[in-house]
Amino acid sequence: MRRVLAVAALGVLPACGPRGLYEAKLVTEVCAGPPALADARYLRLRVTGPGMEPVEHYVLMDQGVVEPPAVPAGKGRVLEVRGYTDLPRGGGRLVALGRSRPFEVSDSERPTVRVAVRRVGAYVRPCASLAEPRAGHTATVVEDGRVLLAGGFQLDLNGTGSTLSSAELFDPVTGTLEQAPALATPRAFHTATRLPDGKVLLAGGEVASVEGTLPVRSALVVDVAQRTSTRVELKVARSHHAAAADSGGRVLLVGGVGAAGAVVSEAEGFDPQTGTVFSVGTPVPRVGMGVMPVQGGRRLAVVGGSDGMELRPEVLFFSYEGGTFAPAGQGPRLREPRRDAALVPFGGSEQLLFVGGKDSPDGVEGGRRLASTEVISSGEAAQVSAGPQVFARSEPCAVALPDGRVVTVGGLRSTANGLLSDPHAELLIPGKDGGAPVMLGLPNLERQRHQHSCTVLEDGSVLIAGGLDVDGRQRTTLDDLVIYTPVPLD
Description:
With 490 residues, the chain is an all-beta fold. The protein is 0% helix and 43% strand.
């Protein structure tokens, strides 16, 4: 069941200042996993925003309806709610956390601010499941804070796969799902890139047909707010590729698998201002690589992967010049070339972390799963250094938290019984003042998985959706949603 706690409605400043009115409602999910506020005695309510000093106060849970902190009228206010076993100065332990979306308070309107409060350091399942089990899909946070889950594939009881055209929108505050308009073309193993105007570019992918698995040449620009999409023709059909947007919103698409399973060499770009696709002169024949913006999006880094014959150790940097993406300076080389690793920002926009993967250039079966990570610096003296050790696996899902830490979840591991889905999760922490980064193990997933999605929500929690569970006996496409709320640094 879902529990809603009311926090009464008033924030008032001294008479000489403007008056802010708002109502807060705390939503706690208890469908599966530990209840958020089971042993909390105190709530800390803290409001921040532009043009105001942070205000906070502590209230006893048994007081019932309480007043939230008084705040000045204005936009961009954020209410953070923390649950403690006792007052922090008395040794109280933080057990629950939630943050609202930015809201506006005024002297005329009285908004209702909803805050999803969840247990920290634990997995919670919302009171909703995917309408269709899916793996190989994408998950993208859109402008209103919901998550667009699009495409993918599912296996039937005989292990036969079908490609999905369905899409769903998950609301992390209410814990509910609603159907989104279907994709014009079914696709799995595509890329999803959020554009500056809030739309989402779903590019390429593959579709199962009577002729076998075929790469998709089209892309869709999805407008979630208007519930519409616009079709765009790519220059090359590709799946299992990588894509990222620079600071101007232009998207670079590289590599992947094309016709007859060949590695795609031709790179291309998409300009959201004109809605057109343009050629990129530098070939990037890679599969199993990652692409990520660095230096505030001024450059895009292409890291790792295989050209089908050999692993590629070169880190490539691209920047937008003269109407296309062009090579930008000399990049470093990986210490341990790999494919099917996860690439994610680490401690800010100057560093990337390359996690796990495999040491073989060929497809899924071959090679050794890696327990190493590498830290790629993108500054003037670009270099690669060793990162923390992790659980050995390929295809991990990894996301960067707002504070620079990284959460990794799931993947594919080698066992005596062959390749199985992995249940491990880790928290990777950048080193301070030149110190070495470290790894902390997180609780294992209740259900192991790979080819799933993991997405950082606006409140800093991580949404884990769907995927494939291969346990040695059967292969199951998952329909669950799991949320993990990391313990904050402070």
